[in-house]
Every structure is written in structure tokens, then in C-alpha cells.
Write a structure and sequence with these properties.
The chain is an alpha+beta fold. 33% of the residues lie in helices and 28% in strands. It contains 14 helices and 24 strands. A hairpin with a 6-residue loop joins strand 5 and strand 6.
């Protein structure tokens, strides 16, 4: 049974999706990190890139967005007759354009934009700027599938794209027209607003957390939603009745954190851990970088009661299911490399691929399973539209700068020794160094056995004070006479 727990009472909005009480998806919407996907802006072309058939757009964000020629309405209208002319034929520097974000900026990359403005409902998708009609392949009745295609073609305009979704299958033509008219009016209102404003400017902001909840409810016939915000509860209850959804919605008004009350918080806390244990004793190690993500599969405590190949295959089967669940849960996207335990039988590799594909079919984002490399690493890609949960919930370590490693006390101690040696010919009699204890232990040797030798090499008496904490560091505070350093040190 599907459950949703919506923690909307605080500034950071969190929505958890559970299946049989196991966390399958988590959306975190921080006021400082809210996704801009689906937001519509009045942007300004800052640079035309003929070699890339693209332009950079200033839409008000820190980094300019990227817009490809294929996403420009004028190109879509002209390509039927003009073919694929250079991008300079369709857009010029300084021009104002309506743009919509399709992928948030991540790392050093700016957002990906489209000029084909899209509005989506449960039953109908409206796209302005492209000539297209689509009908969901999930229709059960072929005659209705054909009928809705003809209806959409009848009512759409030349610069409009329409996608009829599954939930429209048994609705009336009057409801179709009512929803189409509403979406057209929404777009016209944005056009009118843009006409009187200067670029860059936000024109339309998606109500992300309510849209996400509605989307989840639309994808499943029934389930339960617990929510701690009364205004949102009322809106969702009204929407449920209007769309005839068989979901039970509960407003939770207690003072306790709703995630804790529904046993979700503990599962959330495990999401940023590098190691994920499997029920059979095996485990996965996640290494997420800007370029790609690596998942290493290990047998761990699992030994099995049968032959080695069967034991390793059992670990890989469990790992395949959990890896795909974690990708969706952590919202890891881009290139993913899964290093399964080596299997001798090629048919086992194909079975692992089949498991990954089956589990990935439940993901709302497009997942492609490329296949195994000669080294036995499974290549997977997942469409990126927003930062991962790790990117949203963590920041680079100020000590290791995000590498996960820091310099050893030996490295730091020997660097300090070399720096002190550079001052060995000065007239100063002493030096005061502030240093972490672990670095001092290496610098002076066991029981300070190297102190006399070091002081002779640097031709100075060494005064040490200690830096609290675990960071391996040092600071040369002062050079001077023994008396001067002694007074400052003491």
C-alpha cells in the first residue's frame, strides 16, 4: 500500500513516499534550494553560440541558462519548410524570450531551458510553440485512443502541442475543452504579463510540493496521505473530490514531528550514508561525484549455503534491487556505474540487467540500462532534472574540501619541518609554533626523542602550544629571542 507523509509545517517542505512502510522517494524543498523546474521566466539572450546551435539566457539566476535551437518556437515553426538553418536565423543577442526551466543548475552547470512552454494536468498536457499531438499508450480501448487523437487534432491550434493522458480516456469532450481553455488562458495571461515587464523576470512559479503530491496521487488508484498543514490539507481534499481520487487524507495537528510519528525520520537519516546494508549481509558503497556516481557491491557478512557462484549471484540480485531504489530515493542522476561482484556465468549478467530494468520501470525519471563493460561494471544513466538529495542536504567539508580525505599528520609535520628549516640561518634564538597534538607527536618523535636534533637543525629553541580539535594543522606564531618567546608563550 502506498502512503505519503507531507511535512509542510516548517519552512523546509518534505514529502515522503512509502510502499509497505519502506521509504521509496523523498522530496525536500528548502526555501533556499527550491527547484526552478517548470518555472517560467522572461529571459534575455546574452550570447549566441553558432557552433553549438544554442544560446545563453539571463533569466535572473546566478548562472545563465542554456537554450538549444530545437527548443525555440520559431525554429519549430520554420523547420517544416526551411530545414535546419543556423541558430542566428531564429534568435539574436539582446532579444527577450519566454523560457521555462527543464533542469536545475547543478555544480558548475547552468540550468537547461526551453522556449516550448508546457503546462501539465492529470489528464492533459499543453505545450505552446510546437505542432504536436500525442495520446497515452496506456489507453485500454484502441477506439478511444483513436477518437481522442482526432479530437485533439480538431481543437488544437498550429502552434500548440497537446498530450492526452490516460485519465482522460473515459472523460467527456466538454471536460477536455474546459481544461484546454483553462491552459490556454493561463499561457495568454503570462504573455500579457511579460509584455509589460523587463527581463529578467519570474512570470510563473510552480507550487512544487502540492504538484508533487497530486502527481503521486494520480499515479495510484488509492492510498493514504498524512499532512501537517491545514491549508494544504483543504486544497488537496478539494482536488481529490473534484478528480474522484480514492485516497484517504488525514490532517495531523499534533506537536510531534510528523516524520517521527510515522517512523520516517530514521529512514531519512540513513540516506546520506555511504554504506547501505542489504538484508542478506551484503552491502553497497556509494561514491557520488560531479562527473558520475559509482556503486560498489560487496558480499560482506553473506556467505550463503550453496556454491560460490550462486552465493555471489544472490548478493548481486539483492544489490540490483536496492541500488535502483537508492538511485530514486537519493535522486542520483547522470552517469551511474555499478560494480557488481564478478560473475562467471554470462546469463547471470543478463538476469541482473533484467532486474535493474524491472525496478527502474517504477521510476518516474527516464533510466537507461546500457549494459556491462568488459570489466563487469554495469552502466546506467538517469535523467537529471534537479540536484540529488546529497547535494541538497550536505555541503563540502571545510577540512577536506569534499574529497573525503585530509592530509595525514605526517604530511603536515614534515611540511612544518621544511618551513622551519628555511629559517635556520636567521638570527632568532627561538620560534613559537601552534600545532595539533598529532602533528607534534610526529614532529618531535616518540617521547620527544627528535626534539634536540630538530632544534639543532633549525638553530632555534622550539616552543609548542596546541590547537584544539582533530584537524591536522600548524601556525608559526612568532620568531625572536628565547626571552621574548618565553614571555609571549607563557
Amino acid at each position: 500500500m502506498k502512503k505519503m507523509i507531507a511535512n509542510l509545517a516548517s519552512r523546509e517542505k518534505r514529502v515522503a513516499v512509502l510502499e509497505n512502510d519502506v521509504l521509496r522517494k523523498l522530496e525536500i524543498l528548502s526555501p533556499h534550494q527550491r527547484s526552478k523546474v517548470s518555472n517560467i521566466y522572461l529571459g534575455k539572450v546574452t550570447k549566441v553560440l553558432p557552433g553549438m546551435d544554442a544560446v545563453f539566457i539571463d533569466y535572473g539566476a546566478e548562472k545563465n541558462g542554456f537554450l538549444h535551437r530545437d527548443e525555440i518556437p520559431s525554429f519549430q515553426q520554420a523547420k517544416k519548410t526551411d530545414g535546419k538553418a543556423p541558430i542566428g536565423q531564429y534568435v539574436r543577442q539582446g532579444e527577450k524570450l519566454l523560457v521555462q526551466v527543464t533542469r536545475d543548475e547543478t555544480g558548475t552547470k547552468g540550468a537547461k531551458l526551453t522556449g516550448l512552454i508546457e503546462f501539465s494536468t492529470d489528464s492533459l498536457v499543453y505545450i505552446h510553440g510546437i505542432d504536436y499531438v500525442g495520446v497515452s499508450k496506456k489507453f485500454n480501448n484502441e477506439a478511444l485512443h483513436k477518437q481522442w487523437r482526432e479530437t485533439a487534432l480538431q481543437y488544437k491550434k498550429a502552434d500548440e502541442g497537446l498530450i492526452v493522458r490516460t485519465s482522460m480516456e473515459n472523460e467527456s469532450e466538454a471536460i477536455f475543452l474546459d481544461r484546454l481553455t483553462s491552459l490556454r488562458e493561463l499561457f495568454k495571461g503570462i504573455e500579457r504579463k511579460a509584455a509589460s515587464l523587463k527581463a529578467p523576470m519570474l512570470l510563473y512559479e510552480r507550487d512544487m510540493y502540492l504538484d508533487m503530491i497530486k502527481s503521486e496521487m494520480s499515479g495510484t488508484p488509492s492510498g493514504e496521505l498524512a499532512i501537517d498543514d491545514f491549508t494544504a490539507y483543504q486544497e488537496l481534499k478539494k482536488w481529490k473530490e473534484e478528480n474522484r481520487k480514492e485516497w484517504k487524507i488525514f490532517h495531523i495537528s499534533g506537536t510531534r514531528n510528523i516524520f517521527s510519528e510515522w517512523n520516517v525520520e530514521a529512514q531519512v537519516e540513513k540516506m546520506n550514508k555511504k554504506i547501505v546494508w542489504l538484508d542478506n549481509g551484503g552491502y553497497l558503497i556509494f561514491e557520488e561525484t560531479e562527473a558520475f556516481t559509482v556503486i560498489d557491491v560487496n558480499s560482506g557478512k553473506f556467505t550463503g549455503k550453496v556454491a560460490k557462484e550462486a552465493t555471489l549471484f544472490a548478493v548481486n540480485q539483492a544489490a540490483a534491487k536496492e541500488a535502483v531504489r537508492q538511485l530514486r530515493l537519493r535522486n542520483i542522476s547522470g552517469i551511474i556505474l555499478i560494480d557488481f561482484i564478478n560473475m562467471d556465468q554470462s546469463r547471470h549478467e543478463q538476469e541482473i540487467i533484467d532486474i535493474v530494468k524491472k525496478e527502474a520501470a517504477r521510476d518516474e525519471k527516464r533510466v537507461q540500462v546500457i549494459g556491462f563493460t568488459e570489466l563487469g561494471i554495469l552502466q546506467v544513466t538517469r535523467k537529471r532534472t534537479s540536484p540529488s538529495i546529497g547535494e541538497m542536504m550536505t555541503v563540502p567539508c571545510p577540512v577536506c574540501s569534499g574529497s573525503g580525505k585530509i592530509e595525514s599528520p605526517e604530511t603536515v609535520a614534515f611540511r612544518l619541518e621544511r618551513e622551519l628549516l628555511e629559517h635556520r640561518k636567521t638570527d632568532d634564538e627561538a620560534v613559537w609554533v601552534e600545532v595539533s597534538e598529532a602533528v607534534a607527536d610526529v614532529l618531535l618523535g616518540e617521547k620527544e626523542s627528535y626534539r634536540a636534533t630538530l632544534e639543532e637543525l633549525i638553530a632555534k629553541k622550539l616552543f609548542l602550544s596546541f590547537i584544539p580539535g582533530s584537524k591536522y594543522a600548524y601556525s608559526i606564531k612568532r620568531f625572536g629571542s628565547i626571552e621574548e618567546i618565553g614571555r609571549a608563550f607563557g
